[in-house]
UniProtKB/TrEMBL annotation:
Residues 339-407 form the YknX-like C-terminal permuted SH3-like domain. Residues 1-20 form the signal peptide. GO terms for cellular component: efflux pump complex. Belongs to the membrane fusion protein (MFP) (TC 8.A.1) family. One of its GO terms (molecular function) is efflux transmembrane transporter activity. It comes from Thermosediminibacter oceani (strain ATCC BAA-1034 / DSM 16646 / JW/IW-1228P). PROSITE patterns: PROKAR_LIPOPROTEIN. Keywords: Coiled coil, Signal. Residues 107-219 form a coiled coil. Residues 63-247 form the Multidrug resistance protein MdtA-like barrel-sandwich hybrid domain. This is Efflux transporter, RND family, MFP subunit. Pfam families: Beta-barrel_RND_2, BSH_RND, YknX_C.
Amino acid sequence: MLRKGFAALIFFLIPVMVVAGCGRKPPEAADTQESVPVKVDRVTARDLAEYRIFPGTVEAAGQVTVTAKMSGRVEAVLVKAGEKVKAGQVLVRLEQQDVKSQVDQAKAGYEAALANYNKINSQLEQEVQRLESALKQAEENYKNTAQNYERMSGLYQDGAISKREFEGIELQYKIAKEQYESARVQLEMTKEKAVPGTVAAAKAQVEQAKAALSAAQSALESTLITAPIDGVVGAVDVKVGQLITPGIPVATLGNTGSMVVKINVSEDVINSVKTGQKVEVAIEAAGVNLEGTVTSVSPYKDARTGTYPVEVNISGAGETVKPGMFARVKLAVATYPKVLAVPEECVLTKGEDKIIYLVEGGKAKAVKVVTGPTVDGFTVIREGLEEGLEIVVEGQEYLDDGAPVEVVGKEEGK
């Protein structure tokens, strides 16, 4: 029985010893975890800017397209591409013979209407003078007759003259009075109605003829298509003998000494674009990279493109830059001044947390951070870091919290 009990005890202890032996580290293996080589850098505040590139087209400053104002056939092209012109200089002349005939006819009609107006004025003036003279004469006759009538009326009442004689005097008085009233009414009607109406009608004919003459003269002027500004001719789009209509482009003008790039900016960033803002402009065809200045930002959206027109000045671009060339404008659409930011690869995601590793006492320390936008390879750190702390910038993907590290280098100026 004793031997059987000992055997059972041995059977029980063997598994326990095996298990205990598996969990014990060999003395030489303890505390031999290898350090992870890393590079570090100090957290600093920096200015960041988010950029976007917009395609655009180079134009001469103040570039305009000159168009025809009337229909006609081109009689002469007086300038060539590349030629400097002054404002008002004739670029293209249309045929003028028919238009000159219209001017002559309109001028004759105006002169005739003006002569008729002057004639009517003169005749009406003479008629008024005649009526005034007649009224004056009738008034004198009426006064004399009235005085005689009053005197004879007294004599008649005294029986000094017969009734027949008195009736003759009375008839003369009545006739004189009627003649006076008639002359007065005729003069008043002539002055108040006849003269103004007749003069107004004649004047209206003059104004109508004058408008026709002005229209004809304007048409004659429109046969001369002139430069609206000082500049250089970029292109001449018509030929001698060509029939053109209003609105047809004739030539392009601009100031090639001062170039601009026109771009279209989307609504999500238009409020960040300001006049005076400096931008980078790349023009591959000319092989140049220039600094430009935003000179205008339209407050209105272009209905055709759904974007906002923006103009960038690139004065001093040089002769290699030509109107019509393709350009790329690098525009800062968001700025983050004096923010704590780290290289974006330093920020690791573990579960729902954002982690950055510090180095403290030769070991890695995981720190949870709150991040902002990533701009130009740097991630803004809103919470969790302070300026001056050393963070791991290389080797962080091999670390765990508390792992031993060996600093093998520091980033310079990153």
